[in-house]
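Appendix B. Raw example, untouched.
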Amino acid sequence: ISSISLSSLYSIYILIIWFKMNCTSSNDDNQHQHDFDLSYLQDLADKAAKEENPFPNFPIPKGYDLTHTRLTTTGSSSSFNHMEIKNVKTKGKGFHAKQDMDAGTFLLVSKPVGLVMEWEDDEFDEDDEDDDDDEDDMNIDDDEDVMTGNRRNGLLIIRVAEAIQNNPSLWFNEISKLFPREEDLDSLPQVWMCKDAQTGMQIEHAIQNLKQVKEFSSKDNDNDNNNDSDSDGSSISIVDSIHQRLPFIIRYNCLSVETAPEMFVHPDPNKGGHVNLSATGLYTFPSYFNHSPRPNVSRWAIGDILFFVLNQSVKAGDELCISYIESELLCENAKRRSRMLEMDLMDFEEENEDEYVNMDHCDDGNGNDDDNNDDDEAVEPVISLDVQDELMSMHPLDRIDEINRLLQQATATGKLTHSTKNHKNSDDDHHGEKDNSDNNEEDKDDEICIFKCDVHRLRTLLALTFDGLGQSTKALEEWKKCIDFVNQNLPPADEAGIALYVQGALCAAAAGNAASGGGGGDSQDRIAKEYAKMALFKHNLIFGGGVKFFRRRYAKEIELELRSSTKAL
């Protein structure tokens, strides 16, 4: 070492620094690690969530290269360095990795072409008695098949049509390339109709307005390749093509948009929740992320801005997929997942990809139509938000007894038994509240097959109840079970798991504080630190921003008084 001059050591040092910078900078550029500050976006979301009827229109994050949010497709080429659009057997087109990428790699940020807020639909639903309005149905007419759809999708069709009118290139360069394309129309109904007649008329008006657009009328008069053709080969106008395709493009490509839905504070804007920002939108390039029951891409939102991040490492050539349903439903069987998708698809595992086909109904695998069997099969999780609210409205001790009864029944038989009544006058009792004064002869016990996530939801309510009673040790046992469920059944670094780790850490800290008076608490403190580290690690992987952004996003969640010692913690 003494024989090496200082100048030589300095040269070696510079060479090492140069090598590290050149190796890592290329990797960072390609993988778009999301290390920029998003706190100002969170500030906008916090402010908007407090408004009565917010309509977010947030800017793309500062420092993000806009060229990565606009994808110019010519065949299968794209402007992305790290992913490309390729044909996928039985799925159409989808994003694929162009290189090996690590978990936490930032893939895409996007704003919607059109957005419909949930509160817009809720205002309409207050006077609407059709409980199934959120679903699209297949109604077969005498001469043609017709699909009827909900008002929310109808409003989104209007918004997107208006965007196309203001910027016709949206249709030519982006929206027209989405599924269903012209070659896909033969497998779909000929007509989509909105269940709400007034919205349907507004859709027709918005489409007819497109005929005034110079770009559409001029191309309608030109016999060039921009004109579409119907099934018999005859030329149809661009506006007619939009009229036929746009409703189906919306139906098959719209995405739910929720800001921090994993947090327990989410439903209450007065305590910092963002439920008022919930919406449905059409995002053109994110539509190329196909669905998978084992997604390798996570999506999350701040206002109307959607972010897409790898939740696990991928190899070059791997398809990049998200989940179209809630992550806690991904552990259910293919039949249930397919039913929750509402996409006319059977959601098989990747090893059975050849069986992933368009279907008008679900089959149980034995050739039996799902509509004609399994009367006791729940079509959605039994422990819904309404059931959870009902349980949480009970006295805590009664709630514990009822939850334990349901858990015992669910884990022993896989079914829940509950008493139902045939209410002859449902208009007088919209919520189905029991009336024990008469008609007792109509009571009967129904058994319903539960979803796996039903047990998880019950355990979460039990943990919250024990925490609220100050029984931190019992609560911690339930939080552990909830965390185990997430780790075993949900995608890696799922946002729901982050929220559970946070509550588990706070609960363990409370248990440690309570035990320290008696000379104990070391094991609880260790668990608290372990859970806090896992929450931060997973949060940084998906949301980025390190400790600063974690504290920013979870500030109100940690302040939520779920346990008596919250402020001290």
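End of appendix B.
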